[in-house]
Write a structure and sequence with these properties.
The protein has 175 residues and is mainly alpha-helical. The chain has 2 domains: 81 residues, RNA polymerase sigma factor, region 2, helix turn helix motif (Rna Polymerase Sigma Factor, Chain: A); 84 residues, Winged helix-like DNA-binding domain superfamily/Winged helix DNA-binding domain (Arc Repressor Mutant, subunit A). Helix content is 73%, strand content 0%. The chain is built from 7 helices and no strands. Helix 1 crosses helix 2 and helix 1 crosses helix 3. The longest helix has 29 residues. The N and C termini lie far apart (63 Å). GO terms for molecular function: DNA binding; sigma factor activity. One of its GO terms (biological process) is DNA-templated transcription initiation.
Amino acid sequence: MEKVSADAFEHLYLEYSDKIFSYIYLLVNDNEVAEDLTQDTFIKAYRSLDQFNGESHLFTWLFRISRNVTIDYLRKKRLFTFFSIDKFQFESNQQTPLEIVMKGERVTILYEAIRDLKLSYQEVLILRKIKEFSIKETAEILNWNENRVKITTSRAVAALKKELMKRRENSEEVI
């Protein structure tokens, strides 16, 4: 692949940086760290653009780089956190304040439960269920085969359901 011009790479950055940032943020739960890791992702991508062979989509290739950059960061920091609900905006399409609060509480419980799952389950749930990547795209990003994505997604959903049931039982005991 021939060297990409600065203008072409800037276009690539403008097109994908927000999506890469939001993915990284979901894993690190820190705005500044997510910005730094997004920057690192694009630096690595620029330096290794000649290695991109076109077998996958450029977007999934970038996500794979961002995943590797983020996992390296998490390993160094030994932080295996998920993300906070604070940054999520809820549409208020004529919902009452009580409905908005109740929805926010349910979503908070869901994300806290996801945070308690092992990292591979968190990743596959983020990519498949939150970011809505296809099985093929998820496999490319995680460097897994498609069957592993299907199995891990199924196991992650089952583990999430189990975790939510456990939380529900624990909250009923408190009442």
